[in-house]
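This part of the workshop introduces the protein records we will be handling. Getting from the letters to the tokens is the skill we practise here. An example says more than a description, so a record of this kind follows:
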Amino acid sequence: MKAGGRVVLVAGAAAALGLLAWVVGSNYAQVRDAAAGMSWGWASAALVCALLSQAMGGLALSSVLTSLGHPLGAATVLGISLVSTTANYIVSTGGVSGFALKAHLLHKRHVPIATTIVASALTAVILYAVLALILAQGLLTLAFRLQGSRVGLIEGVVGLGVLILAAGGLIVLFLDGRLRGKAARRVFHWTNQAAFRLSSKQIPAENFSAFERQMAQGLARIRHEHGRLTLAVAFTCLDWGFALISLWLCFKAVGDPLPVGPLSAVFAVGQGATLIPALPGGLGAAEGSMAALLVTLGYDGGRALVAALLYRAAYYLVPSLLSILVLWGLKVSEPGVLSEAAARAKDFPSESA
């Protein structure tokens, strides 16, 4: 990463932490009282559901890769999905950082870059489409119930618009052969450059005609593998379903379980805030927006803020910490590393033999 990129990353993290400190500090008494009565049992259940949500995302990616002719072990794909997702939380680059890491880890396991692009685009379309439905339902709740401030509604509208544009753009890209060819050439060079930055040595450049052929073959396989695609959609629905349940359990932990309408509304606002550039995962902005919205809807601000912080810990913080160990495991289990270890074992046989 260049020096300028590091400065932006550090500045964004500092701004997010400062914003979070201000949100919590300005409501410290309420937060303290709400935290004192929190149920750790419900909070633990929220963590379990958050981890299940992450696992469903990995299973969706696994089913798509299998339909593209590159089945990998479930544990491997779950790990790659986790670390690439948390990379997007930590480095707020609109999904670029997570995709680069995913492409690197899959390439090390002999999955072509073209296959990674098709799999990532397809899972993104499904992910955004399901999330757009959830956000639309949440926005309807806001439109009918919100009074006074419209900040939450605006954030949700922006988030929904971004999701629709992203999903629609990806669909058009893969249906239009000429546009796909132009985009493929740019993506081909970009992914090789990104992979080089993540590797200790240059990954051999794939022939571009082979790259285009692999992409076309991948799209053809997807059109014929309806069962696998349905499975990916089901896993994605479970992904967001467990995320919503996790959020509900966080509010249950503070004694304020939300009905479906307000729950989807606050979820929509939180997801909209995560799209704010430079703030890792919308840290600070999401918590403040969610609490402010619920105060407007008549709920206790202190309990709402504690619930939002619990959700942050369960859905973002704990998976991010786990991904450090998972990334280490993925690196040491790469085929090249394992073959090198086997070669060394032959050179230095056990003395007990």
DSSP finds 14 helices and no strands in the chain. Residues 132 and 160 are 6 Å apart (CA to CA).
